[in-house]
Amino acid sequence: MSLQACAEIVERGDPDRFFAVMAAPLAARARLFPLYAFNLEVARAPWVSKGPMIGEMRLQWWRDVVVEPAPRAHEVAGPFHALIEEAGLPRDVIDRLIEARIHDVYGEPFADAVALDRYLDDTAGGLMWLAAKACGGTDEPAARALGWAMGLANYLRAVPELEARGRQPLPDGRAEAVEALAKDGLQRLAMAKGRVPVPAALAAWQARGLLRQVAVDPRVVANGAMGLSEFSRRGGLLWAAFTGRL
User: Is residue 31 located within the same domain as residue 74?
Assistant: First the structure.
């Protein structure tokens, strides 16, 4: 049940978030790595399970971890349970984050834009709020706005892969609808600017550049052409870490 194990899980499964945590102060890393390792375990549970029932069982296991009074002897569950207690993380937010992943278990299309909005808020928005609170933040609306925008950028990047798996990821895949989503994300980024603790906000360092790409040419989503150059990625993270600006 070590911080090192959590860091290694994040490094393997979410390298961009790993680099963002490594750019944060040591004290913040000790809180962010267990949180992000937990998020990875939950996010990938629907995809590594053989059948929906097993996927739901995996998610229920994590829901039980959150409410149990004592930590489990697990490399992620143990440190994460300790973080919940130490940082006073809201258990209802964690539970909604886990519950939202049931959508990924069954892979049904989102009923409408409202359903997609709720999914992004409960997953990426909730995760950013947990990260912000773990780092001393108090502005939940700003954290959720930042997380939603980051979640949207990552989700749009995943659209080609989701479609290849037989999913229908967007309730409206028309270019004008995708462009409107990107512009909504950019507005939320502007609203959250400077209001989220930097160690937590660093994870969103690529969101603005990615969403601008989509706002200019929404076809990059379907074409799988979203992405920043290596120079922009590394330079953007360094700039955000040193200045606190995303």
Answer: yes
